[in-house]
Amino acid sequence: MHDLSAQIAFILEIDKLKAVYRKTMVKADSNRHENSAEHSWHIAILAQIMAGYAQRKIDILRVTKMLLIHDIVEIDTGDLFAFADEQDHQAQEQKELAAAKRIFGLLPTELALEMGNLWHEFEQAQTADAQFAKGMDRVLPVLQNMSNQGGSWKANKVQQSQVLKRNHYLKDIAPKLWQYVQQEVEIAVEKGWLLDR
Amino acid sequence: MHDLSAQIAFILEIDKLKAVYRKTMVKADSNRHENSAEHSWHIAILAQIMAGYAQRKIDILRVTKMLLIHDIVEIDTGDLFAFADEQDHQAQEQKELAAAKRIFGLLPTELALEMGNLWHEFEQAQTADAQFAKGMDRVLPVLQNMSNQGGSWKANKVQQSQVLKRNHYLKDIAPKLWQYVQQEVEIAVEKGWLLDR
Ligand SMILES: [Ca+2]
């Protein structure tokens, strides 16, 4: 029963991710902010739907697991806006390492290792699986904001160069999606949803 | 580009699942109601963590896909409380079939078939994968309510016999979890979180 208690402790701990809110808004729910749990669900499905655009061979089960757990550390650190300053991103990284240790450490050893390793792999983004997963995390807000009159871009005065820099990542990972993002960013600038800088 | 448009239409459509609220409450977020998107995320992770308790051989990728999409039909139908009347469940089933056709039908043919078939398989619950997935869907609210002073059980005057009947399903699928549920239900009755009927 020891393992089961540890597993349940982890499952109950991650319930808290439903209380971590992001800048992105949920159009269908009166434009309230999106939380990181429902966001993780959304990109896990996105990965199933877009797997065919991956340039390299990916293992969709590993990609999916990474996407499901990639934000869990935010329970301790909160979400950092994708377009925050570089120094904020660096400070966040240290805090996330400690959070991963604490939260995945709730699990029985074998699962703690598996989940912790998947989280590190996602963060380091050196493998095809991690890179595709990260690409999904970057492209979803583009779709959401484009369908929501600019959404969090407009609300936070984001520049087109920031979105292009962040999604340029897709160029080698899923070229067709990168092409799509470029078209959409152009439309967003025309509509005034992104700043023309 | 035709396929990509269809894929994006589906991804944006399912954003609406974040606006479908269930009876279960999120303790960490001031006991607001849980939505079906974040619930789907939570049970997808639960399946990874509890896979070792499956009595039969399961394919965890198929289980995970089923759990990610199993509630999407609620975009059209809304969530029905697990302990609603039998006739409400039957009426819901018909509406869900139409919803599956509409929503998965947004996808390009091959993906529409794959996702539609996974959804049907989950609903019919005849395979080891679907049964384990369904077991996860049933057991998670037990964990949530036990950690939340009875949560939606207490708020809706649920009876212990209802929870036992619903989770008896786990007996052959994951016996260790069924044993755990029985213990917890006993505690819940003692504490007055479930009615002693
Ligand atoms: Ca449901």
From TrEMBL, chains A, B:
Keyword tRNA processing: no
Key words, A-Z: Hydrolase, Metal-binding
GO cellular-component term (any): cytoplasm
Entry GO MF terms: 5'-deoxynucleotidase activity; metal ion binding
Highest rank taxon of the organism: Bacteria
Occurrences of domain HD (ranges): 14-178
InterPro entries assigned: HD_domain, YfbR/HDDC2
A Pfam cross-reference name: HD_3
Protein name (Swiss-Prot/TrEMBL): Predicted hydrolase
Organism, scientific name: Paraglaciecola polaris LMG 21857
